[in-house]
Amino acid sequence: MIPMNMVIPPPELAAITALQSKLVSALRPILPEHALLWEPEDTIPYECDGLAAYRRMPLAVALPETEEQVARILKICFNMQVPIVPRGSGTGLSGGAMPMSQGLVLSLAKLKKIISIDPFTRTAVVQPGVRNLAISEAVAHLGLYYAPDPSSQIACSIGGNVNENSGGVHCLKYGLTLHNVLKVRGILMSGEIVEFGSLAPDSPGLDLLAVVMGSEGMLAVVTEVTVKLIAKPKLARVIMASFDDIEKGADAVAAIIAAGIIPAGLEMMDKATTRAVEEFVHAGYDLDAETILLCESDGTPEEVAEEIERMTKVLEQAGASGIQISQNEAERLKFWSGRKNAFPAAGRLAPDYYCMDGTIPRRNIGTLLRRIQGMEKKYGLACLNVFHAGDGNMHPLILFNGADQEEWHRAEEFGTEILEACVELDGTITGEHGVGIEKINSMCVQFGEGERESFWGVKAAFDPEKLLNPDKAIPTLNRCAEYGRMRISGGSVPHPELERF
Amino acid sequence: MSSLQSSSAIDLFREQILAASKNKTPLSIQGGGTKSWYGNANTFTKLETRSYSGILEYQPEELVITACAGTPLKEIEAVLAEKNQVLAFEPPHFGDGATFGGAIAAGLAGPGRISAGNLRDFVLGARILDGKGQDLSFGGKVMKNVAGYDVSRLLPGSMGTLSLLLEASVKVLPRPAATTTLRCPITQARALQLTNEWAGQPLPLSASCWIGSSTGGDGELTIRLAGAAAAVKAAIPLMGAAVNVVELDPSVADAFWSNLREHELPAFQNLNNNDTLYRLALPAVCGPLAIPNMNDQLVLEWHGQQRWFTASGDDVTFATVKTLANANGGHATRFKQGAHVDPNQQRFTLLSEQAHSVALEAVQARLKASFDPAGVFATSRLP
């Protein structure tokens, strides 16, 4: 069937239709009828992931229910040289699961069994489609939980978390997916089953698990994940501190860390965000504050009392204009409700918003926020700033109207400029959302030709035929050259100090 | 170090790499040489990294230190200590001259690994020279970064077989506010049971070590609690309720953990010329193992996941030990050998001896070829 939303020249269209028939015929014998979709009305829900601005219809969508089916699908596509785009829950924000028009979308959503839970060794073995939060829910009665908690944890799947090396509010203290996964079982594009990592710590040899983490579905298809569970803290309390100056707030973040404290969470919202969310959640935020910091402490009651006291002192010394400490769990959740609802609150302010994701050293938070204020004027678009201050992971939300094509392009350019500023400030173009299709051009700003060549070498080591999600994350030399030309306006290249080609 | 000095050191390294590539004479990278006995033996030309030394960037509030590979590990630890910060994975030095680069290449971690994570978990970024002499940087200096593949985390434990590490950025942590060490007499089985039970509770358990007889009977468990002062204080009676613990004097405790990390306890010292020190890495579930022909003392770290013992250094013993490890889901390493043991023996459990690894062997070979097409870093120290 013809992908509906694409304008394709007739000879190519014929080729795509022919390829689609061939692929569907090859996959039919190994999948139940309901697990293979190719009619446009069935495949349209898969045309994009959480980044709806980029869409493309796939040749077909396969929804295997067993590891064996996954292996057989991979082998068939390998033999037919059909590229595969793996997909979890589709909550990714960088277009990492955007289909390829001549490729198959491989959804792992039906592999959603919790295979085993072992309280003694504090591990759980789960299939890739298991939702992040479902793991913690399944082990809560044992006093354990799975620490990484991306904001999308209600919906996002552990397989996707592995591929994006997801973090969350608590990763400052408890680490990213990388730090909380012991073993990943997966299948190479050739159909071979492999295991990365081990339950026995620190195996000799190259740490292939480390490179599979955050590889955006380009190295192997995940079929089983062994996660580390940790003891649930007995208590958590949060301090909400207001600052009348954004720099003071940013400096307070550094002061807490310099005082030897690693809070369980350290999050920041600017005035525009606070106002937007207060209207939405009524958490009692200080609307006059230029910025609000949320600092959480967790652990034993004794530990929390000690840490809250120490953090309060540091925040006072850093010039906080107001401090509130949650007195009970309901209040703690109320303080967090605004931070957790910042995205939907932004959605009420404009028809669309573009959520960026870049990371900078903590000391540069104030500088970046000031620059973003300048960019708001330059692009004529408002931007809300809400972010994981503790690890310098910024999430500017650029407000725009998607119905206006010109405004969308302005929003895109605004976002790109923020990412370039992150690189210039010693940071990176993506903290936790991945590169996907969205930031592939910005990779040309952060990495030189040699690094990009090495990335392709890594890709080829796992997938020599380059069939697994091959159009994502790692730009080709040509792409960077084109991007370089595109970005030169009036003879002035942004960041001339960065290596180009 | 001035930029001129550092760039000339890099130029010299590049010349060595290019010459080795041209002449097909592989190099063996060496820092302080304190772990030169670790890994498979080789006789390749040495490329010494100590000339490229110095801390490049350290801002305590960023919790990151960036240093040249040849920087003495002691220097890094001293600079961190001034700001009350530490390398939480506690890398062993195994000698005075240990370097930062050597620690990363070896990928070894000390007693704190069980609570803090391994060395790889802390690596944020790296600058390398690849086998073509290309100067490349991966990762960065921030905690979260998913731009491109995480090449910098492939380097820990690669033992210089992938590239020459020039610089690395690692995450550091504040020194815990309070630390206490407790000790009790206990059997191996009970020690394994208790430490794993404690690890599943919200207790500030930072390290554990059981030392006892090879028969698995009586022994002594030493545990370290570290964290907020109030949390440490509250945990002592909880542990005391399970076993009869005594609190060690802080100086005695510090010496114990340091000697354990550096293999300077008596249990590591009786390495006979014909013996080998074996390392077993095992899943947490593994109970006491009966190891044939081992010498008297057995050391269990990481709640039983890392075990040390000495035994005859012949191939028959290694084969037995590997079989035992594999049967329990782990692997074995001939960590250090006595002077009279054949140095050409294989030291590691090979990938081919592990499950689902045929395809991985090919992946690993292609990865090596991609970073080092001419085999410059073919030190063979790692299979």
TrEMBL record, chain B:
Would the keyword Flavoprotein turn up in this protein's UniProt record?
Answer: yes
Keyword S-adenosyl-L-methionine included in the entry's annotation:
no
Keywords on this record?
FAD, Flavoprotein
Q: Which GO terms describe its molecular function?
A: catalytic activity; FAD binding
Give the source's domain of life in one word.
Answer: Bacteria
User: Gene3D superfamilies attached here?
Assistant: 3.30.465.10
One Pfam family linked to the record: FAD_binding_4
Which NCBIfam families does the UniProt entry name for this protein?
A: PRK11282.1
Q: What is this protein called?
A: Glycolate oxidase subunit GlcE
Say which species the protein is native to.
Polynucleobacter arcticus
